[in-house]
Model the fold of this input.
Amino acid sequence: MRLFRVKKIINDYTLLLLCISVSFLLMIFSRTPGQDTGLEEILFRFFGSINSPFVHLKTLRYVQQENRVLRFENTLLELEKMKYIETFYENKRLRMLLNFKDQDSIAVKPARVLSQSNIAGVKTITIDAGTMSGVRIDMPLVNSDGLIGRIIKTTSRYAIGQLLVDRNFRAAARIQQSREIGIYQNYDQQSGVLFGVHHRADVHIGDDVITMGKSSVFPAGLFIGTVARIDTTTSRLFKRVYVESKVNFTKLEEVFIVFNRTDE
Amino acid sequence: MKYFLYIILLVLGYVFQCTLIDLFSIKGIVPDLPVIFFIYISFREGRRFGVILGFALGFCLDVLTARLLGTGPLVFSLIGFVSGMAGRKPILHLNFYFFAFSLLLFSYYLLMHFVVYVGHLRFWPLLISETIPSFFYSEFLLLFLLLCVPNFIWQGRKLMVDI
Done:
């Protein structure tokens, strides 16, 4: 009896050791992040079908309020559009006069958010568009309030997007008004911090922060947020610029995937 | 039947966590339902079951959230083992369970915080402003689960014998 108990204890401990070893092996030898192993597809399909009614339920709560806001915004945007059309043609004429090359144009595709990870330390969303819709890793995700994140994993019908508020998110950014550059990194649930901004840089609270466009991930000009606070005391060489995003990360229902025209 | 109920509980916990949990958030702080249910189940079923379930659950969560594959199985296996161990102690008293649950939950949050945020700019501030409040919220729910779910729902009766 005692022998049996000892054997059982050893078995439990062996099992634990085995699991820990396999976990470490998985960490070391797991496939390159973002690749589809087939298991993801099965799990996403399973949870996607269960999540859908819950997502609709969640959407209903905000739909009326959102509709009212959207109607108001739509009217304002119509007025803005008229102004921009004029500016667009004027810009085109001037560019032609200066022999400027046209910049890469971008297009967007909508996708529905199926689930949002609220698991410790991970801020990701699962969307209902995958490689079959042309979605690829590193494509940016936006909505009307600005940059949301980027695609980090794809399957044929689903994709996982890393949010701007994830601890591993980085983006090359620029302050729109003064053209100063820095690296955007997550700070807390709604804001990030811009590193590498020189202490003499001309930065003010309320300035807009946009993507720089020098990386292969984000095109230039995607709105990240506004400068909320500037900390000059932490370092002598660089300022720490705190950027607040306008995106409400708890109420994401639809996102837009940004395609380059060449991706389509 | 019992294991089937466990799986349903975990799946529903995860689905709820991914969709509607924001409705119950307090200043952005949300409880971790899959973990609460997992500790509860491991506590009832013993360490072997805890390790196996922990490994499987951690793996699935890693895949579903695109986290570094292996972190989930590592943390959940350890917590499952300790939960199962604590659940087998012959001290059948509410205080013990509450204490053991709290300790396990806190260990989970601490482990996960360490694994995910090590090297982060705001390791300590995030621990205080996010991880510990989330722990207390989950703790509250765990206590609710412990006190309010009648034992006859489950066939196995290792837990709450004299509560």
